[in-house]
Amino acid sequence: MPSWPIILAWGLPWTLASLAAIWLLSALFRDRSRGRLRCPRCWYDMAGAGLTCPECGKQARSERALRRIAQE
Ligand SMILES: [Zn+2]
After folding, report:
1. Which has the minimum average pLDDT: 5-19, 27-41, 49-63?
2. How many CB atoms within 10 Å of residue 57?
3. CA of 7 to the centre of ligand 1 (A)
4. Torsion from C-alpha of 43, 59, 36, 29, nearest 10 degrees
5. CA distances to 17, 43, 58 from 71, in Å
6. CA 58: distance to chain centroid?
7. Dihedral angle computed from the Cα positions of residues 52, 53, 58 and 64, in that order, rounded to the nearest 10 degrees
8. Mean pLDDT over each residue of the chain, to the nearest integer
9. Per residue in 1-28, pLDDT tens?
10. In angstroms, what is the span from residue 70 Cα to ligand 1's centroid?
11. Helix (H, G, I), strand (E, B) or coil at 58
12. What is the pTM of this model?
């Protein structure tokens, strides 16, 4: 006959910890994949705006250029 209080006492924290870790990791990867594209000149949010900044007309060579600057 298993002693449920002991199993719960050990299992619950681990379950919560692994759930928290999974949630944290998924949030991290979701942020990374979505990224934050910002205009390198005026810092305008370029999400969905393409490679030309609608605010100041700055043209980026690639989406990666916006992403790299945004990460600094
Ligand atoms: Zn701009």
Report:
1. 27-41
2. 10
3. 57
4. -160
5. 29, 12, 18
6. 25
7. -70
8. 82
9. 668 888 888 888 899 999 999 998 888 7
10. 13
11. coil
12. 0.45
Q: Measured in angstroms, how far is the CA atom of residue 26 from the centroid of ligand 1?
A: 30
> Is 41's pLDDT higher than 70?
yes
Contact 48, 62 (CB under 8 A): no
DSSP state of 37: -
For residue 30, report the distance from its CA to the centre of ligand 1, in Å: 25
Helical segments of the chain, H only: 4-34, 63-71
Q: Could you tell me which residues come within 8 angstroms of residue 13 by beta carbon, excluding any fewer than 6 positions away?
A: none
Is residue 30 packed enough to be buried (19+ CB in 10 Å), middle (13-18) or exposed (0-12)?
A: exposed
